C-alpha cells in the first residue's frame, strides 16, 4: 500500500489543521484556569466587582461552565450533523467570545456567573470538535492528533496562569478575548470534513477536501480510495454482516448491493444504530467507569482552584509559580501522550498512566514530612485521562456510531465535574 503512505506535506497540513482545532481547547483552558487567580480579587475588600463573592458564588464560578456544557451537549450532535464539522466548531467558538465580552463590560456578580455558564456551551462544542480532527487525520497518526486537543487545553491553562500572574484583571480579560477571536478566525481557513461531505452526498467537495488534507490531486487514486473507505465505514451493512456472519445467503445478498445505495437510503438515526450495536454499548460502559474514576482523581478541581489550594498545600512557595509548574507538568504529559499513543496503543498507555498516578498519590501522602520538592512533585503529577477515554471509544466504533457515545460520555463528564467542583 505504497500510495497509502502519508506524505510529509500532508503530515504538515494535517498537523496545522489540528493545531487550529486544538486551539479551541486552549479557550476551554482559559475559562477553567481563570477562577484560580481571580478568586482572591473577587473575595477581597478591593474587588473589581460591585460586591464581594461569597463561598457559594466561588463554587458556582468553577462549576457553572460544566453545567452550561452539560445543557448544550445534547444539541452538539445535531449541530455537527446539520452545519457540518467546520461551521459547528466555529459556532461553538462564539460563546467564548460572548462570555469574555460580558466579563469585560460588567461588574455584576450574577452577570459574571451567567458568562461562565455561556462559556460552558463552548466547552461542550470544543470537546465534540475532536471528531473533526479524527475525520481529517491519516490512520497512522489519528490517535496522536486527536490527543492534541488535550495539549491545547493544558496549553491554555498554562497561558492563563502566566497571564494571571503578571497582568491586571482587565488586561487578562482583554488578552483572553483577543486570543479567542483569533482562534475563531483561524478555523475559517480549514476545509470541511470529508466524512461529513460524503454523509450528505457531496462527493465532489469531499474529494477536494481529501486532496487538500493529503496534498494530492483531486483525480488521484488516494482520493478515490479514501472516499471508498469512508463509504465502507458509513455503510450499515457492516453491522448486519457481523450480526449474521453464519448466514451466508444473507451476507452475499448484502455484498451484491451497490456500496452507496444503502448509505444514501439509510433512514435510521445514529441513536437507533447505537442502540442496536452491542460493541458500542460495551465500549460506552467501560469508558463511563473510567471517566467516573478520572473525575474522582481531583485533577479538574486542582486546575480550577490551583492557587488557593497551593497557598495551603505549599505555603513557602509562590502559589502562582506552583500553578504554572502544574500546568507545565500537564502539558508535558499530554505531549508525551501524543507522541506515543499510536505506537503503544490506547489500553496499555492508559494503564501505565494510572499506575504512575497511583504511585505519586501514595508518594504525596508519604512525603508529608519530607523535602518540599518531593511534596510538590507528587502533588503535581496528575494526568487527566478523560480525552484518552474518548479516543479509546472513538477508535472502537465506526464514525456513525461513535458520535452518540461521545455525547453521552461528555454529559457524564460535565455533570460529574459540575457536581464535584461545586
From TrEMBL:
Residue intervals passing through the bilayer: 12-38, 58-80, 87-105, 111-133, 145-163, 169-190, 283-306, 318-341
Localisation: Membrane
PANTHER family per UniProt: AT22075P-RELATED, PTHR48021
> What protein does this entry describe?
Uncharacterized protein
Gene Ontology terms: cellular component? membrane
Pfam families, per this entry? Sugar_tr
Could you list this entry's UniProt keywords, alphabetically sorted: Membrane, Transmembrane, Transmembrane helix
> Which Gene3D superfamilies does its entry note?
MFS general substrate transporter like domains (1.20.1250.20)
- Per its record, what are the GO molecular function terms? transmembrane transporter activity
State the source organism's domain of life. Answer: Eukaryota
Amino acid at each position: 500500500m505504497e500510495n497509502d503512505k502519508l506524505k510529509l506535506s500532508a503530515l504538515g497540513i494535517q498537523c496545522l489543521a489540528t493545531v487550529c482545532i486544538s486551539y479551541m481547547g486552549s479557550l476551554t483552558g482559559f475559562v477553567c484556569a481563570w477562577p484560580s487567580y481571580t478568586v482572591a480579587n473577587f473575595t477581597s475588600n478591593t474587588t473589581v466587582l460591585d460586591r464581594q463573592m461569597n463561598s457559594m458564588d466561588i463554587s458556582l464560578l468553577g462549576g457553572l461552565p460544566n453545567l452550561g456544557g452539560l445543557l448544550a451537549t445534547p444539541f452538539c450532535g445535531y449541530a455537527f450533523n446539520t452545519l457540518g464539522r467546520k461551521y459547528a466548531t466555529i459556532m461553538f467558538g462564539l460563546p467564548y467570545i460572548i462570555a469574555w465580552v460580558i466579563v469585560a463590560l460588567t461588574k455584576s456578580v450574577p452577570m459574571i456567573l451567567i458568562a461562565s455558564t455561556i462559556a460552558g456551551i463552548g466547552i461542550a462544542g470544543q470537546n465534540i470538535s475532536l471528531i473533526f480532527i479524527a475525520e481529517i487525520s491519516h490512520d497512522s497518526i489519528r490517535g496522536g492528533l486527536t490527543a492534541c486537543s488535550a495539549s491545547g487545553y493544558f496549553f491554555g491553562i498554562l497561558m492563563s496562569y502566566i497571564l494571571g500572574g503578571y497582568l491586571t484583571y482587565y488586561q487578562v480579560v482583554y488578552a483572553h478575548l483577543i486570543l479567542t477571536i483569533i482562534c475563531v478566525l483561524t478555523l475559517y481557513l480549514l476545509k470541511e470534513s470529508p466524512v461529513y461531505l460524503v454523509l450528505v452526498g457531496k462527493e465532489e467537495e469531499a474529494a477536494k477536501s481529501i486532496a487538500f488534507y493529503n496534498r494530492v490531486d483531486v483525480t488521484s487514486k488516494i482520493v478515490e480510495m479514501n472516499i471508498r473507505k469512508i463509504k465502507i465505514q458509513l455503510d450499515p451493512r457492516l453491522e448486519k454482516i457481523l450480526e449474521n456472519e453464519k448466514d451466508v445467503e444473507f451476507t452475499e445478498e448484502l455484498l451484491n448491493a451497490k456500496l452507496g445505495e444503502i448509505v444514501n437510503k439509510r433512514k435510521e438515526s445514529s441513536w437507533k444504530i447505537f442502540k442496536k450495536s452491542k460493541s458500542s454499548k460495551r465500549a460506552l460502559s467501560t469508558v463511563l467507569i473510567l471517566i467516573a474514576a478520572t473525575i474522582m482523581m481531583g485533577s479538574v478541581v486542582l486546575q480550577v482552584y490551583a492557587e488557593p489550594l497551593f497557598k495551603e498545600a505549599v505555603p513557602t512557595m509562590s502559589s502562582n509559580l506552583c500553578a504554572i509548574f502544574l500546568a507545565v507538568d500537564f502539558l508535558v504529559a499530554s505531549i508525551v501522550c501524543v507522541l506515543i499513543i499510536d505506537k503503544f496503543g490506547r489500553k496499555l498507555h492508559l494503564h501505565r498512566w494510572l499506575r504512575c498516578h497511583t504511585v505519586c498519590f501514595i508518594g504525596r501522602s508519604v512525603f508529608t514530612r519530607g523535602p518540599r520538592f518531593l511534596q510538590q512533585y507528587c502533588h503535581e503529577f496528575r494526568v487527566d485521562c478523560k480525552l484518552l477515554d474518548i479516543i479509546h471509544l472513538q477508535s472502537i466504533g465506526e464514525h456513525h456510531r461513535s458520535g452518540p457515545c461521545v455525547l453521552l460520555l461528555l454529559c457524564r463528564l460535565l455533570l460529574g465535574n459540575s457536581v464535584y467542583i461545586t
